[in-house]
Automatic annotation (TrEMBL):
Ranges annotated as biased composition (Low complexity): 73-82
Species annotation: Streptomyces shenzhenensis
UniProt keyword list: DNA-binding
Name under which the protein is recorded: DNA-binding protein
Top-level taxon: Bacteria
SMART domains, sorted: CSP (SM00357)
């Protein structure tokens, strides 16, 4: 039995990935291997699973909540509050993408304004688990 956290799950396509807690390579997760309701699967959810060798690498099976995990029933894909399609970015990557977006959307912003907006976006992203250091 292995344990880890869901790093990404696309409910439309029915698959995602789990990062094992011991730092091994990410494990493929398919909706057909869930022993919990699909609506509970979200980025950051702690799970336990068996590891099998799939066609393209490690594959999770018998996926269930880890002891002490806090399930949160989700809503339909794409609705407000559904973060299952959100990739977790490194802080540097997130900051770079926000900077490029701001420069493209509002080229008249000053450097100081961009830094201030980025800082607020980064705090918001960290609070929601969208970034990691």
């Amino acid at each position: 039995m292995a344990a880890g956290r869901v790093v990404r799950f696309d409910s439309v396509r029915g698959y995602g990935f789990i990062a094992p807690e011991h730092g091994d390579e990410d494990v493929f997760l398919h909706v057909n291997d869930l022993l919990i309701p699909e609506s509970m699967v979200r980025t950051g959810l702690e799970v336990e699973f068996e590891v099998e060798e799939g066609e393209r690498g490690p594959k999770a099976s018998s996926i269930r909540l880890a002891p002490g995990a806090t399930p949160r029933a989700g809503s339909a894909s794409g609705s407000v509050g559904d973060d299952s399609l959100c990739d977790v970015l490194q802080t540097v990557e997130f900051t770079t993408e926000i900077t490029e977006l701001l420069l493209q959307a509002a080229p008249t912003l000053t450097g100081q304004q961009i830094v201030q907006i980025r800082r607020e976006f980064l705090q918001f992203a960290k609070k929601h688990g969208w970034t990691e250091d």
